[in-house]
Amino acid sequence: MSERKKSAISLKNVRVTYRSGIPFTRATSVYSPLKDISFELYEGDSLGVLGRNGAGKSTLLRLLNGIIKPDGGKVTNHGHRTALLSLTVGYDQNLSGRQNAVISGMMMGLKKHFIVSKLDEINEFAELGEFFDRPVKNYSTGMKQRLGMAVAIHLKTDVLLIDEILAVGDSKFRKKSEAVMKEKITSGDTVVLVSHSAETVKRLCNKAVWIENGVVAQYGDSKSVVAAYEESQK
How far, in Å, CA of 68 to CA of 61, rounded? Predict the structure, then answer.
């Protein structure tokens, strides 16, 4: 009898609502990208997140990372460190790539001396050269992507959250990054991957969740969920 997987993060009836004022009025605009989300992320799973633009995929990753809190329902992290790999989160634009790498590692709960010991490997993988010691505000989008991927790969975390970043950069680096991600997944790391590419989810993930209109349209093995999602797009 196979051992049952342990839950890494649980979501139960989770709701996230954004409110903003409407210019020149006292009215408030209300938008709920996530209305009622429930599922379990298990240790060792690679979970792909599918959905249309604006479906709340990036919001879901921020919930899993603890950056934002739900307005309703409950997110329970069962003692796991998470790291969010995104082009829009986590960089101090005035600090160098080296300094940002150290800060990112410390935010993951890692010791500074361990992070420093990995900096040469991070720079080598990111292919930044002397730019590693220059402010991130001078980086191109591709350079930021390479830095983020290098940090995530070399600084071990319990749950890696990836927001569309595998689709950015030149083809050589994309292939290099995907190869490393496959290695992490096959070695039993827990990964959550947001992607517009259903094919990427099917290729890299064993599980998938499809979000539609703020709720879970389908959750299960990636091939079944991808097939249903692609059928809905026709």
Answer: 9
For residue 90, what pLDDT is reported? Answer: 65
What is the value of pTM for the model shown? Answer: 0.82
- Amino acid identity, position 216: V
> What sections of 118-221 are H helices per DSSP?
119-126, 141-154, 171-186, 198-204
CB-based contact 211:55 (threshold 8 Å): yes
Residues 6+ apart with CB under 8 A from 34: 14, 15, 16, 56, 59, 60, 63, 70, 211, 214
Q: Count CB atoms within 10 A of the CB of residue 24.
A: 6
Q: How far is Cα 12 from Cα 158, in angstroms, rounded to an integer? A: 21
Q: Residues 222, 207: contact at Cβ < 8 Å?
A: yes
Tens-digit pLDDT profile for residues 99-153 = 999 998 887 778 899 999 999 999 999 999 999 999 999 998 888 878 888 887 7
- Report how far residue 141's alpha carbon sits from residue 109's, in angstroms, rounded to the nearest whole number: 26
Does the pLDDT value for residue 170 go beyond 80? no
The residue type at 88: T
Give the C-alpha separation, 16 to 40, whole Å.
18
**Order of strands across the sheet that contains 28-42:** 72-77, 7-21, 28-42, 215-221, 207-212, 46-50, 190-194, 159-163, 82-85
